[in-house]
Amino acid sequence: MPEEKKTTEEDKNISEKDKDDKLKDDKTSEKGASESSSDSKDSKSRYRIVWIAASSVLIAIILFLGVAGFGFYKLGWENNFILSVAKTLRLPVALYDSKAISYNDFQSDIDTLKFFYNAQASSNPGLVVVPPDSFLKKSVLSRLIRERFLTESADELGVTVSQADIDNEFKSLSSLEESEGAVQKTLQELYNWTEEEFKKKVLEPFLFRAKLQEYIAADEVINAEAKKQAEEALALIRAGEREFEDIAKEYSQDTTAASGGDLGYFSTGQMVPEFEEAAFALAIGETSGIVKTQFGYHIILLTERIEGTDESPEQLRASHILIQSKDVDEWINEQLANKKVSVLLSELEWKDDCGLVLGVNETCDQNELLDVASSQVGGAAPLNTIE
User: CA nearest 145: which of 102, 194, 199?
Assistant: First the structure.
């Protein structure tokens, strides 16, 4: 019995110890849970603070960009800070078929024109006046939009300009200078450009334009109306009811129209090949059929022939009627009328009738571009819109 009693007391002590240990474990668990809950609350609090701070910064940036954009586009703000923002963010100044014309390209060309006109004004005081900023903006933006369309159209029509074409054109221009160094000096002094910048900004668009003009001039569909007019003029000549001179004055579209189409005297090598071949094949008083050249549709009347001698070549005197092929600028204007062009700068808008960026209240017939261009004397600007 004593041993049994002892065992019972030991069991009782062990049971009480287990209770104490469990109680301690429960307290430890409660403390851990409490600390874990506290840490979770602190973490959530820190996340909330970070999120609020980040949201505040984002809202501030959005508001700033909104105000800056509104000021730049609608109010015409042009302080250095706003312009630096426009340059950094590459804000668009116009949209052509939803594609942006960037402020960077726009401002770069304006800076070039200002440099050019200032250089010209310094070299020719009193003869060249630096145009106002409003003129430069319209001129540059018009050119950028038209060039974008020109190069894209050339690509669609398969008209290409190679690097070799550009380099050869540059060599041709360089041959007019005393040395390559003289060319570099001229580019630097007049335009503040490197050779590569000049090739990219001037020669490449120039060659695209020239090649596209050749393509347009050769296209019978594009020039169907011009050919129809030439056929009308030829029918009148063959009817014999009116003099060639009178018909030329009515139909011809070049500067000889006023004089009845008289071209004066010329010899071989002075006219384009197609014209020359047709003219030299005529008898005096004979009229050609329709002769197609890069300039358009000609009707030629041979009026005199002077036989060549040992001292001078054979010469012809002829008159002609010229119905011109569609000009590349005219074609661009027609095509751009079907494109969506949006000018984003305040007080400026795109005019479909003439394919130019003008003031809101300006018209294609009366505008600053024509007024300033016609008043300038001196060298031609490198990025002219008015050809």
Answer: 102
210: left (phi over 0), alpha (psi -120 to 50) or beta: alpha
| pTM exceeds 0.90 | no
Least reliable range by pLDDT among 18-27, 52-61, 233-242, 302-311:
52-61
The rounded mean pLDDT for the chain is 79
3-state secondary structure of 159: coil
Q: Which CATH class is domain 90-220+339-375?
A: mainly alpha
Q: What SS3 class is residue 194?
A: coil
Alpha carbons 298 and 263: distance in angstroms, whole number: 12
Residues in CB range of 205: below 8 A, 6 or more apart: 147, 150, 151
Question: If phi over 0 gives left and psi between -120 and 50 gives alpha, with beta otherwise, what is residue 381?
Answer: beta
What radius of gyration do the chain's Cα atoms show? 39
DSSP assignment of 265-333: EE-TTSS-HHHHHHHHTPPTT-EEEEEEETTEEEEEEEEEEE---SSS--EEEEEEEEEEPPPHHHHHH
Domains 90-220+339-375 and 224-325 share a fold: no
Closest CA to 230 of 355, 331, 325, 103: 325
Residue 253 sits at the vertex; the CA angle it makes with 247 and 258, to the nearest 5 degrees, is 60
Report d(CA 300, CA 322) in Å as an integer: 9
Order of strands across the sheet with 287-293? 262-266, 315-324, 296-306, 287-293
Classify 224-325 by CATH class: alpha beta
Between 359 and 71, where is the model more confident?
Answer: 359
As a whole number of angstroms, the distance between CA 153 and CA 173 comes to 27
Query: What does the DSSP 8-state code read for residue 259?
Result: G
Note the pLDDT tens digit of each residue in 114-157: 898 888 888 888 787 788 888 898 999 999 999 989 988 999 99
pLDDT at 385 over 60: no
Q: Where are the domains of the chain?
A: 1-81, 90-220+339-375, 224-325
**102 to each of 23, 109, 284, 348, how far by Cα in Å?**
74, 11, 60, 16
Residues paired with 342 in a beta bridge: 95
